[in-house]
TrEMBL record:
Keyword Signal annotated: yes
Keywords: Cell cycle, Cell division, Coiled coil, Periplasm, Signal
Gene Ontology CC entries for this record: outer membrane-bounded periplasmic space
The keyword Transferase is assigned to this record: no
Coiled-coil spans in chain: 59-86
Protein name according to UniProt: Cell division coordinator CpoB
Signal peptide (UniProt feature, chain positions): 1-21
Species the sequence originates in: Acidithiobacillus ferrooxidans (Thiobacillus ferrooxidans)
Pfam families assigned: TPR_16 (PF13432), TPR_6 (PF13174)
Family from the record: Belongs to the CpoB family.
Alphabetized HAMAP family for the sequence: CpoB
Subcellular compartments: Periplasm
InterPro entries: CpoB, CpoB_C, TPR-like_helical_dom_sf, TPR_rpt
Amino acid sequence: MKRWHLFPVLSLLCLSPFAQAESTGEKVLQLQQQMAVMQGELSSLVAVQQASKGSQSALADLLARTQRLEQEVRDLRGELDTKTHALQTQQQALTAQLANLTSATTSTSSTAITASNAALINSAAVIASAASNTSAPTIQGLGQSDYQQAFDLLRQGRYGSAVTALQGFIQRHPQSSLVPDAYYWLGQAQYVLGQNDAALKSLDTVQTRFSQSSKAPEAMLRMAEIYQAIGQSGKARVVLDKIIKRYSSTPSAQKAEAQLQALPAQK
């Protein structure tokens, strides 16, 4: 009977290691599960930390680039201010130079016109005395009073009024022997007023309609000067060649030859 009572005890003793092993295995599995969870949490923490470091790095880079851009903007503004000041200074200098040039050109043009007028008047016996400052014999020709009044306006430098008066004289006295002179001085006055096309037309009328007039070669010389002044040297050359051929062996031809030599060489 004692032997049969020992079997349960022995059975329990035999099963105990297995039960303990199973319990240990469960604990190991639980620990492994806990470790897996902890590893996941650790990975998450590492990722968050890395992301945070990346964000901080990106933010620092962005801040650095912003600072560089701000510095470049400041540099560009400084450069722009410097260039603007230099440009304003150059513009002021250019304006002053232009004003001086305009004044000098006006003075030179007036002097040149006066000298040219005096020379041309001395070469024309009909109106030489009337152009001088001393008393003069009366200009001969139909409508001489009207012509004299217009010419006096020209001599006084009242070019706009002189143009109107000379045009009126030509309309009222188209058959007058003074018409070639009127056209010539009309062209001179128009040129002084900057009416280049009108001046060339008036002077051309002298050499086409009144080619035998003493004013014809002088009008052509003046045309050549105007063409050259407005940058049309080719047309100036054509007019000068025509003077030399049409009025050879005359002072006008000699002047034309001199002007022709002064023209820039043809390309």
